[in-house]
Amino acid sequence: MILSTFLPTLVVLLRVSCVNTHQVPLAESTESKSTPPKPAADFHPTYDGPTWEKKYGSQYDLSYTGPLSFSHLPYERCLDNASLSYDIAILGLPFDTAVTYRSGARFGPFAIRSGSRRQHSQRGYTLSWADNPYTHGERILDCGDVPVNPFDNALAVDQMEVAYSTLLARPATRSNTEPVTRLLAKDGVEHPRIISLGGDHTIVLPILRSLHRVYGPISVIHFDAHLDTWATYPGQTSEQARVTHGTFFYLAKEEGLLAQNNIHAGIRCKMTGIADMVNDETVGFQAITADDLDDIGSGEIINKIKKRIGDSPVYLSLDIDVIGMKSVFVNKFLSFPLIDPGLAPATGTPEPGGWTTRELKRIIRGLAGLNFVGADIVEVAPAYDHADITGIAAADLVHDFLSLFLAKSPPQSRHARVDDEL
Ligand SMILES: *[C@@H]1O[C@H](CO)[C@@H](O)[C@H](O)[C@H]1NC(C)=O
Questions:
Q1: How far apart are CA 221 and CA 193, in angstroms?
Q2: Where are the transmembrane segments (predicted)?
Q3: For the purposes of burial, counting CB atoms within 10 Å of the CB of 158, is it exposed (0-12), middle (13-18) or buried (19 or more)?
Q4: Which of 40, 43, 114, 416 is deepest in the core (most CB within 10 A)?
């Protein structure tokens, strides 16, 4: 009874006091703007100890601080500055408007850079490579992202081609030293190599157009759960609608961009039938399936890829969905496979039963010494990630790509190295 009588009064009082306290500082701040307080004549700083710089040195970045670039590399807007040169450029291509299922790979470049924050040139050595890719004297830059149009795919594909061609045409920093791409390029000039961060897989079409102009027909090593050599999807009634993340290799073949000795690794997707494999061969691919790893092992997979590619100029395209999701069985009586969020869940078209990150890394190491002219990692869509697992895996694979480009041959196994030393 008493409470119900006093409550309305209390509310009114509280409201009035809120209005008052809110108004007072506002009025004061207006006044203080017109007449700023002057420091007293005997003003002394409240801190007269050593400055940060004197006591601790530079404002260096920790793994989790500072501006975001790939592995804390210098970040440059390379498209804006024609006098920038590099040997290897990291380039974001945030395009994701040609996917058949989950979109979101436009955030891939951000997720991969974020996943790379614990990587640094000064801690770039790994036992598995016996190498630090940052010690070869190559200039490696993060060239930023291409501002790809998200509304008009024809425009976006052209923007990607123009940006890639612009950066590919720059003279490599080490152009007068040991030749790498000069021996492969039609113009006999040393071109830099670009590692692209996708983006959905469609980005490979404009990339192949650019590379073809410099090197002629390109051989492709394609790590993926899917073929991406399909001619069409149902309902594609316009020319532009043919350009998708599952058809770009078909279109590249149509345009004469591809060599005939291409190879997939990690295939395990569902198909319309065996006719898809017949078409795949026509496009110029051989396929290594996910199960081949159990049947023939990583050594034989590496041999097959190397034999297929030979000394052709080769482009490496890695769809993060090549990495697997574990199938987990509840128990022996319940036979449904449950899908565990696995090793790289943040992707647009996930397929259970792929390779582990460790298995994939081992196969990639075995390919060192081939004539790589570029590489990408695509289809990282971080909105579907858990604990950044996919971004971290992708960033680690890009670190492998750097050693892959720079090492002259695959590293010996550590056991062989230890035996040599004894
Ligand atoms: C462009 O890059 C060069 C070489 O690193 C640098 O000296 C110059 O300041 C840059 N120009 C601009 C406008 O950023």
A1: 16
A2: none
A3: middle
A4: 114
Nearest-CA residue for ligand 1 atom 5 is 84
Which amino acid is residue 386, in one-letter code? Answer: H
Question: Ligand 1 centre and the CA of 199: distance in Å?
Answer: 28
Token readout for 121 is 């040139």
pTM of the model: 0.86
How close is the Cα of 195 to the center of ligand 1, in Å?
Answer: 22
Region class of 72: left (phi > 0), else alpha (psi between -120 and 50), else beta: left
Atom nearest to 81 CA in ligand 1: 1
Q: List per-block mean pLDDT (blocks of 10 residues) for the chain, which spans 422 residues.
A: 47 43 44 63 77 96 95 98 97 98 97 98 96 95 98 98 98 82 96 97 98 98 98 91 97 98 97 98 98 96 98 97 66 45 82 92 97 98 94 97 96 80 62
- What spacing in Å lies between the alpha carbon of 85 and ligand 1's midpoint? 10
Probe residue for ligand 1, chosen from 75, 76, 77, 83 as the CB with the greatest number of ligand atoms within 8 Å? 83
Assigned fold of 83-421: Arginase; Chain A (3.40.800)
